[in-house]
Amino acid sequence: MADIIGVVFFPISHEISYTAKLLALGVFTSSYLSRPFGALLLGQYGDIKGRKPAILMVFIFTAIPSIIMAGLPAYSQIGMLAPIIFILLRLAQGMVYGVFTPLGLITIAEQASPKTFYTYGGLVSACFLLGKPLADLFFIILDNTYSYSEIINGAWRIPFVCSASLSLICIGLWRYLDETPLFKHDAYANTVGSPPVEATEPVRNFHAAVVASILVFVISSLVMVIALMLPSLTLLTFNIDPTLMDSATLAATISLIVGCVVFGVITDKIGVGKVLMLGSSALIALVILFYSMLKSSGGDYLYITYSLLGFCAGIIAPLATVIIKLFSTKIRLTFYALVYNCVYAIVGGILPMGLFYVTNRFGFFPELYLIFIGLITFTMGYYFNSMPRLTLRL
What we know:
Helix content: over 70%
Order of helices and strands: HHHHHHHHHHHHHHHHH
Structural class: mainly alpha
Oligomer: single chain
Number of helices: 17
Strand content: under 5%
């Protein structure tokens, strides 16, 4: 959308449309600035009022900005007021997105039984990832249905209409959602009489925040490198047909979605520690195989090696779900959302530039980075496998 929004909302001629694109990208990425604030505000709201009220707030504040953006006049109609309103709406949506992923995971996982906890978490992670190929498909259809001039003259509003419609459907379904049993139990306990805060609780929460930060670092690294950056990084170093790379990336993304579900189910059977150790070992082996095949055979085995690599990256599902167990119910959403957004922002800001620079200078650095991430994951698996049961709470 950056090219389109740049033309619609910024007073820059087509001759210097690159500047307009940068401005539009800035508008979209500005929503990341407000995510930590949304994590703090909506996270506390969800921890005090409940998961169900927080979900309603999320969909309301997703729907309203989308509705306004869908009907927002362009710069040619109201001048500088158009981009100002658009930026403010994106900031408002950014606050909502600051709690979106953790809230979805927590709400579903707290509904699950102990025997299906990681399975449900894996399903939620898979559904979040499914948004990427569906969004890609949506914009392919949009580009093939309308000409560039038609999109500029009004068809650019369609994605915002769809976003608002989906949010309104979710608001309609919201009434059928029950509050999570864990939150209701905690709320009842508070009405009876809150137990005194243990002296070790602040230390325990700090320890949980550090562990959660490491896990989010691994999750963000795997998603960004394997699902988003690896195609471009590979094309920098190897002579592969870009069309082949695109189709292999789609296959890897689908495999990653399947991997999230499979790793979630297996984790419920054998435990998070064992799954992380086994999954990270397989991930390291597949990274070595992926690059070995590229060096020796080019793109001949790209489909199968990239798909297997994507499947092994499905260990992000138990990683994302186990974070829920690190925090008590009364602070879970706030801490998870804050850690998730802050670490993701740091990794998202540094990793792309760093990896592209080092790869351009030295070659196969992504291979070493992914092996490094695999070793961290194995260490965390060993840590959880050796950790006393009381350290993981639910």
